[in-house]
Amino acid sequence: MSYRLVVVATEHATLRTLAGQLGESVQVALFDNANDALWEVQDNPPEVLITENDLPGMSGMDLAEILPNFELPTKVLIWSEDVTAALNAQAAEAGVFRVLAHGTNIAGLRAALEDAVSNARVAAAEAESRAQAQPSRQQLRKRPLKRRPPLRSRKRNAA
Asked: Would you say 97 and 116 are in contact if contact means Cβ atoms under 8 Å apart?
């Protein structure tokens, strides 16, 4: 399955070496801070973004909370050393696709990524079909106006 992946990682070797572990069909862009990743996502949206939760400056959760403002189908996965119920609740509220524990093996990580890609593609297709169903402003301008027959004036009977 060919797709684009943005990875935001500073410490975890598993995330930093994903490009070599996922193969050539996955285009991986690696960033060590969330700000640079935000610029990349805005300019060239990937299907999936995976980020460490503990990042300097802006946390992975902060990044996940900002991304919906871009209205992109990009799915976000959070990689955290300490997965708690509070983190899962915050992630669900932010629209995070999945929270992964630091100990997740490469097979589990690959499965989560492929699931996220499938969901991102479905979301992109649905957004495109909604956009096609609604005529653009330019299309609306090209439509001829329907002419209504003139109103007949009622003559008042003089009494």
From this structure: yes
